[in-house]
Write a structure and sequence with these properties.
alpha+beta; eight-stranded mixed β-sheet; seven-stranded antiparallel β-sheet; binds 4'-deoxy-4'-aminopyridoxal-5'-phosphate
């Protein structure tokens, strides 16, 4: 399917891809007030399936609540709209659900508080701009730990809100790190503890094989993070959701990032220091393989995490 032939759900009706635009002076563009969520779609033996759709839609509603955008659509309505949008668009890999203030506003508080809801189902590789030379996924990622800009400040914007404004500080830091040759960054919180990546959560494995990830308070409640915690417990690993100091991370035997786009992504090095031997470790590999089987609908124990769009 050509990108231009895709259809976007916009406030209850479908419009052509190219018509889903906002004005330059819209509140959400000018103030960064757009709330969104992003979920993956996978090919399974039973056709395309959305991964953990109810959890993503709940987080979307929570983000709207945290930012103060009035809710205009029920969970049921959103669920049906996402499923229908995936059905109408072929070869879809991801869905973005957005809530934004489209009106042209003077003040930070909008005079017209109509929240537009839009749902795009697409293939990020085919339908968005790619870097020159293509997007190569390295087997393990080279990370820079950002130490200057302390992020994830609940007293400014809740780290639990997926709102456009929350991505600006990480963008600035990651842009700098990319110019210096790193693939990705990790952010530290106000106390100097490891928080998360700009679009991923982080895990590490200590010398005893215990799996660690920073606690809920200071990170986006990643759906992949929650899934990996559940899969790891199911597989008998000990997991700890506790604060991680940078030194602890540097000494880990394995580390990996998790996210809707990233899946489970092993870390090669942090600040040029190898994590373990720099190659994907056994825990990362085991969890990554299991996660991939689940999203493809190959593990009946976790099939309830999938919403099949062709189910009648
Ligand atoms: N942290 C942040 C800040 C993110 O934007 C994302 C991507 N949604 C994640 C973590 C990973 O969350 P998920 O596993 O739900 O994609």
């Amino acid at each position: 399917m050509q990108t231009r032939d895709r259809q976007i759900w916009l406030d209850g009706r479908f419009v052509p891809w190219g018509d889903a635009t906002v004005h330059l002076l819209s509140h959400s563009l000018q103030r960064g007030s757009l709330v969104f969520d992003y979920l993956s779609v996978h090919e399974t033996p039973r056709g395309p399936a959305c991964f953990r759709l109810p959890e993503h839609l709940q987080r979307f509603r929570d983000s709207c609540e945290l930012v103060g955008l009035p809710q205009t659509r029920s969970s049921q309505e959103l669920t049906e709209a996402v499923v229908e949008t995936v059905r109408r668009n072929e070869d879809v890999r991801a869905v973005k659900v957005c809530a934004y203030l489209a009106s042209l506003e003077l003040d930070v508080v909008p005079a017209d508080d109509h929240v537009t809801v839009a749902i795009a189902a697409y293939d990020p590789l085919a339908d968005t701009v790619q870097p020159a030379g293509g997007r190569k996924r390295v087997e393990a990622v080279r990370i820079w730990l950002e130490k200057q800009a302390r992020q994830r400040r609940p007293d400014i914007v809740s780290p639990h809100a997926k709102v456009a404004a929350n991505y600006v500080s990480p963008m600035t830091a990651k842009w700098k790190a990319k110019r210096a040759g790193y693939d990705e960054i990790l952010l530290i919180d106000a106390r100097g503890m490891v928080a998360e990546g700009p679009t991923t959560n982080v895990f590490c494995v200590d010398a005893d094989g215990v799996l660690w990830t920073p606690p809920d308070e200071g990170v986006l409640l990643g759906v992949t993070r929650r899934s990996i915690l559940e899969i790891a417990k199911h597989a008998g690993y000990t997991v700890r959701e506790e604060a991680i100091a940078p030194e602890f991370l540097f000494d880990a035997s394995e580390a990996f990032l998790t996210g809707t786009s990233a899946g489970v992504w092993p870390v090669e090095s942090i600040d040029d220091r190898l994590v373990g031997d720099g190659r994907p470790g056994p825990v990362s590999q085991t969890l990554s393989q299991h996660f991939r089987r689940i999203v493809r609908g190959e593990d009946p124990a976790f099939e309830h995490w999938l919403t099949y769009v062709d189910a009648t």
